[in-house]
Amino acid sequence: MYTFSTLPVEIVYRIMDHEDEQTLFCSMQNVCRRLNQILSTYERYRTLTTLNLDDNRIGDDGAQHIADVLRTNTTLTALDLNWNGIGDKGAQHIADALRKNTTLTTLNLYGNGIGNKGAQYIADALRTNTTLTALDLCDNRIGDEGAQYIADALRTNTTLTALDLGNNEIGAKGAQHIANALRTNTTLTTLKLLNNEISDTGAQHIADALRTNTTLTALDLSRNRIDAKGAQHIADALRTNTTLTTLNFYRNEIGDEGAQHIADALRTNRVILISVPRRNGIGAEGAQHIAAALRTNTTLTALKLFDNEIGDKGAQHIADALRTNATLTTLNLYGNGIGDKGAQHIADALRTNTTLTTLDLCDNRIGDEGAQYIADALRTNTTLTALDLCDNGIGDKVAQLIAEALRRNAKPRLLWHDRFRPESGGKEPAGTDSDFNGSSRRYDRPGIVSAGELSTDKWLIDLIPKKTSVSYSFYF
User: Fold this and answer.
1) Least confident of 190-199, 376-385, 402-411
2) Which residues contact 254 (CB under 8 A, 6 or more apart)?
3) Could you tell me the residue ranges of all domains in the chain?
4) Positions of the region Disordered (predicted)?
5) What pLDDT, on the 0 to 100 scale, is given for residue 439?
6) pLDDT per residue as tens digits for the range 367-393
């Protein structure tokens, strides 16, 4: 009679074949020496590089088991422990393992109730760890004190390139600690501080660091109660900073004045993507400042102004800039109160613009008249490949005209986003915003949104040629 310790290896392999990766990694490791030896030769375990334990409620005890394995494991490179309630104690276990582990490069600890003490444990590990490149501590509660611990570690750590400290109750003081670290750190390229409370004072600290930092390329300051003054600090820093390429101001309060500061900086800075969307209070005047910068800027490729208040007048300013701008490829004007007149201005620009490939006009006030202008422009425009006109009250007849214009378009590789709001009848599927950087939606079910008596899929399907190797994607 066999016991587990004497079972033939082939039978143990068969048992392992029926276990999931979590069991293999967390429960079968370190049971006994023989099982460890068998695991080390088992193909699934030997080639396991990514482990996702998202939302499994493992707690600090589970974190300890995982940490025990990490000390000796030599294959795992990415570990996701999001939403597991590991707390400070669990963070300590993971941090202790990071001192010895030499293969893990990506660690996600999002939403684990980690406070300043847990941040201290992780920071201590970062001082000696030489393999971790991406760390996600978003949606914890490390506060200013925890931010200081992490910042101090960044002074000596030479491998971390991406750090997410979003939604951590970090204020201006914490931002100052991080800024101090940025002055000497030469490896961090991506920093996310979204949904904290750094305010204008914190923005000033970060801006001061940007004047000398030469490695950071992406900075997310979304939802930080930054107004025009804070935007001015950042803009002033952009005039001398030569490495930052992506800047996100989502849901701040910079207004037209702040937009002017950012626009002025764009005249000389090499930023390629700037996002100042949602509730920033940018109106037609702010759009005018940004448009003026677009006329001379030669590096910006993506501009996201969704959920502001630029209206038809602001759309005209942006459209006028598109006639001469030769670098912008992505423009997001979702939810800006743009009507038929604004659509006409944009359509006129599309006739001559040869660089824009993605345009989002979703959730505006464009009716059949405005959509007709867009359709007419598409007959001559040969570069636009992605267009979103959802939630605009466009009827069947004009939808057909747009589809026909797309079919005649000289560029067959057309990605068409179509989720028209029904004029009458039909139901719009329930959905929620899913991407804070854009206007994509996640719906409960895929399918066509009915518009009146007919469905827009009739004309969309007609766009596909009978014989072609081109890959088409339709999003509904």
Assistant:
1) 402-411
2) 226, 227, 228, 230, 231, 261, 262, 276, 280, 281, 282
3) 1-48, 52-475
4) 419-442
5) 34
6) 999 999 999 999 899 899 888 998 898
Q: Please identify, in words, the CATH class of the domain defined by 52-475.
A: alpha beta
Hey, CA dihedral for 381, 387, 392, 398, is it positive or negative? positive
Please identify which residue in the block is written with the tokens 């001398």.
Answer: 240
Virtual torsion, Cα 399, 404, 407, 409, nearest 10 deg:
-100
Measure Cα distances from 152 to 136, 155, 178, 219, 292 in Å. Answer: 17, 6, 8, 19, 41
